[in-house]
Amino acid sequence: MSGPLGNVFNPSYTGELEWTKSKKTMMVTFANRGFGSDLAYVSMRFNEEWFGRLRLIPLNKNISVEGQIIEFNRTGLELWNCEIVNPDAQSANAAISSSSQT
Predict the structure, then answer these.
(1) How confident is the model at residue 88 (pLDDT cuts 50, 70, 90)?
(2) pTM of the model
């Protein structure tokens, strides 16, 4: 899936899942989707490895995401265990991460 980054929610308790150690995930949405739009709502859940990086991506920046489909219906799509696969977003995050460690 690809689209402009919308809301990035605070981490929330999701329970025991094999793909998250902290039992918390962060939900992210695409901008301009859902009610009042011709495009379906998309929610994506990321594990703790992505929390810091997701907060650094500017709103409305286009990202590409892969994840496991949990629910798909007429109102939208829900993906879990997501990863950003957009090379621009990954390289920008890696640069920010490495500069903060020095």
Answers:
(1) low
(2) 0.75
